[in-house]
Each structure stands twice: as structure tokens, then as C-alpha cells.
Write a structure and sequence with these properties.
Elements: E1 6-25, H1 42-49, E2 51-53, H2 64-67, H3 69-76, H4 79-82, E3 85-87, E4 102-122, E5 128-143, E6 154-155
């Protein structure tokens, strides 16, 4: 059926990489403080935004003024230790006194697959018919959708395997 005037080409390429470094938040708010319903929960929202007495208030560390004056001076110039109140959600995390505490893990992975199919038919008097099909699948598990869920990163695409 096919002769020298017909050509079909099928190509596949793919790649898979795992153990890619991925930063993970070390002090996420635990899942118990989130609301997973379909409607707004005012009690949960109010708890996140409520101001409470600051347990890290500098007056609670007055002994540092004599035992470690350098640290005391640092704390005296930091609003985290001088503010009388703090948002309640700041106290729910593992390390409330630190911002941006992350750990690098090797949980990220990516996968790419590509399929190319080409059909070419040559006719008399220089006429050609070309048909091409390309399909690219891409998968990248490169973020944690819920900060408290550290089990595995989630893909950023609709990959189906």
C-alpha cells in the first residue's frame, strides 16, 4: 500500500527526574486550625485574626538584661518582643519567634513525555500532503498545596499516568 512517496515517522522522547531540592516550611499552622467546609466559618476566621497577649513580651525576659545584654538589646529593637499583643495564629506554629524557617528536602520530581507522529505523501507535479501530531505530557510535583501536609508535593498540572 505504501510506496516511496509515503513516509510515516513516529518519535517518542521522555525524561524523569527525582530527588530535586524543594523548600518546605518548618513552622506551618497545623491542620486543626483550618476550616475545610464549603462556606465561611466566622469562628475560624476570627481565631486566625484575634489578638492575644504576647508571651514573648520583653518584660518576660528581664533576666536577660543582666545575663546577656547583647541579646536583650537585640530583642528590645525587635517589634516581635516589644508588642503587647500578637495574632493568635502566630502562636499555633512550631517556631513562632522565627520567620521563613525552611528545610530543603529532595521530594520534588518531574516527568516529561512527548509523542510526535508525522505523515507525508508526495504526489505528482510537486504536490505534498503533510500531517503532524504532537502530544506533550508534563508533570512537576514542586509545591505543597497545604503547608501542614508534608507527605508529598503536589503536581502543578493535570498529569494522568
Amino acid at each position: 500500500m505504501f510506496d516511496n512517496a509515503t513516509a510515516i515517522t513516529v518519535e517518542y522522547s521522555g525524561s524523569y527526574t527525582n530527588h530535586i531540592p524543594l523548600n518546605m516550611n518548618m513552622s506551618p499552622v497545623p491542620a486543626q486550625y483550618y476550616w475545610f467546609g464549603n462556606s465561611r466559618n466566622d469562628a475560624t476566621a476570627n481565631a486566625w485574626n484575634a489578638n492575644v497577649a504576647n508571651p514573648f513580651l520583653l518584660s518576660n525576659f528581664s533576666g536577660l538584661q543582666t545575663s546577656n545584654p547583647t541579646l536583650y538589646t537585640y530583642m528590645a529593637n525587635n517589634s516581635f518582643f516589644t508588642s503587647k499583643t500578637i495574632q493568635g495564629e502566630r502562636l499555633w506554629v512550631a517556631f513562632p519567634q522565627m520567620n521563613g524557617l525552611t528545610q530543603t528536602t529532595d521530594l520534588q520530581k518531574t516527568k516529561t513525555e512527548e509523542l510526535d507522529v508525522s505523515f507525508q505523501r508526495r504526489f505528482a507535479k510537486g504536490f505534498n500532503v503533510n500531517m503532524n501530531y504532537t502530544r506533550l505530557w508534563s508533570y512537576a510535583a514542586d509545591f505543597f498545596p497545604n503547608p501542614f501536609d508534608r507527605s508529598r508535593p503536589t503536581p502543578n498540572s493535570s498529569w494522568r499516568s
